[in-house]
TrEMBL record:
GO terms for biological process: amino acid biosynthetic process; aromatic amino acid family biosynthetic process; chorismate biosynthetic process; quinate catabolic process. The gene is aroQ. Pathway: Metabolic intermediate biosynthesis; chorismate biosynthesis; chorismate from D-erythrose 4-phosphate and phosphoenolpyruvate: step 3/7. This is 3-dehydroquinate dehydratase. It comes from Collinsella stercoris DSM 13279. One of its GO terms (molecular function) is 3-dehydroquinate dehydratase activity.
Length: 158
């Protein structure tokens, strides 16, 4: 076992990381007919409230418009968080790098999408990141993140 992982195991706390990909910082402005009128700040609040209710000791909500920054954040999660909720946004459908990063750290991960991607364009039908996730939540709006954190908490309790 890697040193960072050993230290993490001793801490006996439950920490979650929520990762949001490009354009999710534009929630409230961006295509409200698809993504709603609530802002990114509301999304952060929903994640913090849900994580508290579910017994997580901490949650970080991270957003970046840059693929490499998302890869970096996933790598940094190794040994410091217990599980990941990820909405890679457009990178869902393109990024083998994000898939490989999730596989590299091998942390339990849940894929989440605000919209029902399965009912949208053909190019949204492939999910690379999803191949490294044990569950997927779609079409539940911002509350889908609370659902995804619940699935993660249940998985970590096992
Ligand atoms: C999204 C769906 C993606 O296809 C899209 O590129 C996004 C948001 C969602 O949350 O519904 O940016 O991940």
């Amino acid at each position: 076992m890697h040193q960072k992982e050993r230290t993490r195991k001793r801490e006996n706390t439950m920490k979650a990381l929520v990762i949001n990909g490009p354009n999710l910082n534009m929630l409230g402005i961006r295509e409200p007919g698809i993504y709603g009128t609530e802002t990114y700040e509301t999304l952060v609040q929903i994640c913090q409230d849900a994580a508290g209710d579910l017994g997580f000791d901490g949650v970080e909500v991270f957003q970046s418009n840059h693929e490499g920054a998302i890869v970096d954040r996933i790598q940094e999660a190794y040994g410091s968080v217990d599980g990941i909720v990820i909405n890679p946004a457009a990178y869902t459908h393109t990024s083998v790098a994000i898939l490989d990063a999730l596989k590299a750290v091998s942390l339990p991960a849940v894929e989440v999408h605000i919209s029902a991607v399965e009912d949208r364009e053909d190019f949204r039908q492939i999910s690379y990141a999803g191949m490294a996730c044990f569950a997927r939540v779609t079409g539940e709006g911002l509350q889908g993140y609370a659902h995804a954190l619940k699935l993660l908490a249940e998985k970590l309790a096992k």
